[in-house]
């Protein structure tokens, strides 16, 4: 009985968490493309103006970033300016929550058919590598190991801390700018 | 609570064995189809493989209304459009694809156009675009390896744009796959070997990659057992109908396995090598399989060890310490490749193919990293990792 009464609150909390995580990740993707050369090497292969979306089906929270050139990503907080080129869609809010709360690795979620790719699969693979690199930077190692297939062996603590601090600073700045706007 | 989750789907009726072709008229009638069209290639027709299919239909009073026998090895949007025109002109109501991967993929693509309408197949490219069942579609494979008869994917080249268009939908699956040993009896030795190793790789990767599940495991292990037991027998006696049927069934079972659990790095490297060096897919699979298994070893030790039972049988399995079974499985696959090299010179290294330059390895590695199947490889693969596998496979 109690579980039944709590269910709407749990659903709402999950939705809010997923929405917040998408906002953080979108801004963090923009930030990592500004601070990390390896990430830029990955994103340079995307066409300029390329729009990437992650969304919860059918009309759930989403994040949209655009490749603005030279490997730099821009987070679109107000939605896509035109139809997106590549969309990775979670089939259900529960599946998005499992991944974004690091209970299920992104690669496992793909293997478990939790997500659909609409667009060029090779670019989806590339964007997944970018997401993995982001998670390896900004999450504590113990948590990151739950999120990515393999924690990069060559990512050492000083580089991780420095990059994470720069990414978080840029994310926080972006949030403040959004609030002021 | 378990975190395991999987999906498994295969609604294809498999009609396999002696006189299987003779079931086609009954099956077509069951779907109210009276005017079938055959889609095939010149090689299949020249080998006389259409004759038993046509005879089986005619004996039951079912006329094959049209035959298109000009499907190229790499089918294109133009070919699909041409076949669609013939289908509509002749007022056909069903398709029988007879051939290997290209003929089958072409049949799937034609079925989209004749069912959904229009002439632009590119419009239906992607996943989940199709929302309705298509026309009756039967597949008669003439190679034993691709497993295309039980997969929901087709790839067609758009010549104008120079890109490969993927089509994914469960509606692409045929109503029936007809596995008749007569259709593979005349396959040349090197194609028999390469396609069987393709099936072996489908099964091995299905059993060791990330999306493995109990149902795909059952198909994968059965396929590995059939290839291990029958391939060399067929190589020594190509007219062995029982062995041919075993290989054809193995191919279908491996197809069911990998279409439900996906494949990994062997396919990523194989797709890239095929695109850059134009090597046949089955050959690439045979070539890379042991090297990728070695790369993945510590992540797949347990399932790979289990495969020894199906590769070598219970005596070898029980005589091998559990801690050495994974290595023994790789040795078994190497042994099989050596035996195939002895019989038909199926290359075991990139150098032995004579068609790959060492300078191309970096390009192959880079392309492999963006291949969709790499997502399901149990180990993360960096550019250096892919290059190191390629260097080991070089010579």
TrEMBL record, chain A:
<protein>
    <submittedName>
        <fullName>SCP-2 sterol transfer family</fullName>
    </submittedName>
</protein>
Automatic annotation (TrEMBL), chain B:
<feature type="domain" description="Alcohol dehydrogenase iron-type/glycerol dehydrogenase GldA">
    <location>
        <begin position="11"/>
        <end position="181"/>
    </location>
</feature>
<keyword id="KW-0560">Oxidoreductase</keyword>
<dbReference type="InterPro" id="IPR018211">
    <property type="entry name" value="ADH_Fe_CS"/>
</dbReference>
<feature type="domain" description="Fe-containing alcohol dehydrogenase-like C-terminal">
    <location>
        <begin position="192"/>
        <end position="394"/>
    </location>
</feature>
<dbReference type="InterPro" id="IPR039697">
    <property type="entry name" value="Alcohol_dehydrogenase_Fe"/>
</dbReference>
<dbReference type="Pfam" id="PF00465">
    <property type="entry name" value="Fe-ADH"/>
</dbReference>
<keyword id="KW-0520">NAD</keyword>
<comment type="similarity">
    <text>Belongs to the iron-containing alcohol dehydrogenase family.</text>
</comment>
<dbReference type="InterPro" id="IPR056798">
    <property type="entry name" value="ADH_Fe_C"/>
</dbReference>
<dbReference type="GO" id="GO:0004022">
    <property type="term" value="F:alcohol dehydrogenase (NAD+) activity"/>
</dbReference>
<dbReference type="InterPro" id="IPR001670">
    <property type="entry name" value="ADH_Fe/GldA"/>
</dbReference>
<dbReference type="Pfam" id="PF25137">
    <property type="entry name" value="ADH_Fe_C"/>
</dbReference>
<dbReference type="GO" id="GO:0046872">
    <property type="term" value="F:metal ion binding"/>
</dbReference>
<protein>
    <submittedName>
        <fullName>Alcohol dehydrogenase</fullName>
        <ecNumber>1.1.1.1</ecNumber>
    </submittedName>
</protein>
């Amino acid at each position: 009985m109690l579980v039944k009464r709590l269910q709407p609150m749990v659903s709402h909390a999950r939705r809010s968490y997923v929405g917040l995580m998408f906002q953080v990740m979108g801004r963090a993707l923009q930030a990592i493309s500004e601070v990390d050369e390896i990430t830029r090497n990955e994103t340079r292969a995307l066409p300029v103006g390329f729009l990437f979306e992650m969304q919860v089906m059918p009309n759930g929270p989403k994040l949209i970033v655009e490749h603005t050139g030279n490997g730099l990503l821009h987070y679109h907080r107000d939605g896509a300016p035109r139809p997106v080129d590549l969309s990775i869609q979670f089939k259900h809010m529960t599946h998005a929550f499992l991944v974004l709360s690091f209970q299920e690795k992104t690669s496992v979620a793909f293997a478990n058919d939790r997500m659909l790719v609409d667009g060029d699969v090779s670019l989806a693979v590339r964007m997944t590598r970018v997401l993995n690199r982001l998670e390896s930077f900004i999450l504590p190692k113990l948590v990151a190991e739950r999120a990515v297939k393999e924690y990069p062996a060559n990512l050492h603590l000083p580089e991780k801390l420095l990059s994470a601090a720069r990414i978080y600073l840029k994310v926080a700045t972006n949030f403040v700018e959004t609030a002021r706007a | 609570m378990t975190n395991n989750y999987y999906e498994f789907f295969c609604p294809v009726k498999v009609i396999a064995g002696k006189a299987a072709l003779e079931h086609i008229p009954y099956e077509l009638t069951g779907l109210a189809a009276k005017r079938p069209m055959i889609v095939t290639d010149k090689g299949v027709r020249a080998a006389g493989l259409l004759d038993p299919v046509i005879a089986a239909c005619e004996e039951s009073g079912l006329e094959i209304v049209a035959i298109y026998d000009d499907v190229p090895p790499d089918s294109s949007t133009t070919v699909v459009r041409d076949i669609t025109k013939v289908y509509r002109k002749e007022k056909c109501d069903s398709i029988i694809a007879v051939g290997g991967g290209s003929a089958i993929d072409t049949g799937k693509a034609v079925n989209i156009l004749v069912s959904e309408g229009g002439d632009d197949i590119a419009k239906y490219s992607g996943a989940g675009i199709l929302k309705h069942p298509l026309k009756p579609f039967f597949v008669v494979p003439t190679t034993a390896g691709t497993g295309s008869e039980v997969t929901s994917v087709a790839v067609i080249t758009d010549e104008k744009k120079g890109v490969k268009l993927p089509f994914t939908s469960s509606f692409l699956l045929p109503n029936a796959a007809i596995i008749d040993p007569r259709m593979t009896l005349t396959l040349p030795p090197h194609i028999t070997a390469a396609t069987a190793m393709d099936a072996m790789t489908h099964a091995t990767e299905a059993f060791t990659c990330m999306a493995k599940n109990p149902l795909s495991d059952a198909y994968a292990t059965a396929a590995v057992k059939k290839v291990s037991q029958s391939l060399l027998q067929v190589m020594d006696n190509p007219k062995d109908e029982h062995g041919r049927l075993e290989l054809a069934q193995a191919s279908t079972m491996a197809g069911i396995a990998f279409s439900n659990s996906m494949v990994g790095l062997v396919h990523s490297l194989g797709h890239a090598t095929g695109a850059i060096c134009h090597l046949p897919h089955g050959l690439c699979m045979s070539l890379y399989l042991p090297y990728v298994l070695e790369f993945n070893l510590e992540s797949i030790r347990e399932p790979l060890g289990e495969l020894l039972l199906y590769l070598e049988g219970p005596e070898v399995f029980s005589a091998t310490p559990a801690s050495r079974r994974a290595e023994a499985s790789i040795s078994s696959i190497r042994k099989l490749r050596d035996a195939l090299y002895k019989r038909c010179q199926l290359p075991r290294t990139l150098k032995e193919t004579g068609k790959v330059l060492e300078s191309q390895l970096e390009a192959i590695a880079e392309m492999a990293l963006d291949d969709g199947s790499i997502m399901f490889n149990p180990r993360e693969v960096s550019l250096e990792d892919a290059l190191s596998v390629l260097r080991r496979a070089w010579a």
